[in-house]
């Protein structure tokens, strides 16, 4: 009977993992087709607006404003021009980073003061108890190691070697900025907040404070930046989507593994993903500025 129960537990673990993989594959098709639909809709709207001459009238109105307020409109043109990275792309990255920083501070305030977050964390941890079969624990233990500081450092070292070999040196400093910034921010936050971890129940242990998750932070920053390097100069949009999507899946699996293995609460990994996203944007902005400076110097 014990053998049958153990076999059933292992089969249920395999089934749950296959179900999770199937959900990610289904989500891939949904996101891909939804993105194509949104792109086609946006293109049609743009064409209709252009046919009615709205852009021409808007441009005439902006010309009048430029004559009245040349300095102010010049500043706005410099910030919102899509022709230079220091214009609209950098502005959007700055706004996104500021928004992510605000989210992180809001979540920190909720963690420190709101009982609802504590209740939710405990409820999620207890809900996963029924799914923690030996097979699932083994798989997620392997996945969680992909987000360890040792693994991320090794990945960054190997990536640095490839970047030097392919003469893409401009991406090396931003890559190490991502891993150093994400880890320093996370470990400083851990000991400043000193939030206790959940009870260890599957044999996986950690001894540092819980909030935020260093695995989630580092995975989002480092794997996200490597994905950005891969897709930046790639022409095929389908390949760019596949790399971006499956990198996101990897990062989410690493974050989820920390909750599944009961070494972090949901709020810990959520904060980790937010902080990692912030450093990813900082790394991308730095890389683009360095790449354009290097390109300009080579002319």
TrEMBL record:
Pfam assignment, any one: PAP2
TM annotation in the entry: 14-39, 85-105, 139-163, 175-193, 213-231, 243-265, 271-291
Domain spans labelled Phosphatidic acid phosphatase type 2/haloperoxidase: 172-284
Alphabetically ordered keywords of this record: Membrane, Transmembrane, Transmembrane helix
PANTHER family registered for this protein in UniProt: AT30094P (PTHR14969:SF13), SPHINGOSINE-1-PHOSPHATE PHOSPHOHYDROLASE (PTHR14969)
Name of the protein: Membrane-associated phospholipid phosphatase
Native source species: Desulfocurvibacter africanus PCS
């Amino acid at each position: 009977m014990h053998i049958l129960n153990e076999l059933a537990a292992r089969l249920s673990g395999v089934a749950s993992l296959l179900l999770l993989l199937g959900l990610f594959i289904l989500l891939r098709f949904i996101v891909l087709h939804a993105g194509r639909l949104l792109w086609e809709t946006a293109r049609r709207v743009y064409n209709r607006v252009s046919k009615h001459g709205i852009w021409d009238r808007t441009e005439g109105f902006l010309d009048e404003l430029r004559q009245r307020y040349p300095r102010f409109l010049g500043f706005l043109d410099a910030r919102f021009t899509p022709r230079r990275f220091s214009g609209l792309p950098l502005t959007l990255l700055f706004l996104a980073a500021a928004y992510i920083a605000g989210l992180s501070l809001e979540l920190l305030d909720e963690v420190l003061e709101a009982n609802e977050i504590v209740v939710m964390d405990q409820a999620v941890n207890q809900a996963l108890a029924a799914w923690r079969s030996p097979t699932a624990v083994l798989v997620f233990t392997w996945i969680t190691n992909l987000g360890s500081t040792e693994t991320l450092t090794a990945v960054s070292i190997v990536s640095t070697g490839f970047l030097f070999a392919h003469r893409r040196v401009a991406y090396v400093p931003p890559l190490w900025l991502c891993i150093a910034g994400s880890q320093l921010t996370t470990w400083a936050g851990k000991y400043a907040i000193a939030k206790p971890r959940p009870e260890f129940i599957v044999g996986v242990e950690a001894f540092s404070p819980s909030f935020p998750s260093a695995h989630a932070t580092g995975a989002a920053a480092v794997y996200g930046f490597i994905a950005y390097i891969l897709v930046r100069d790639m022409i095929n949009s389908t390949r760019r989507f596949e790399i971006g999507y499956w990198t996101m899946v990897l990062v989410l699996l690493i974050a989820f593994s920390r909750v599944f293995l009961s070494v972090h609460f949901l709020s810990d990994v959520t904060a980790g993903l937010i902080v990692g996203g912030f450093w990813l944007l900082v790394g991308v902005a730095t890389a683009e500025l360095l790449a354009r400076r290097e390109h300009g110097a080579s002319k």
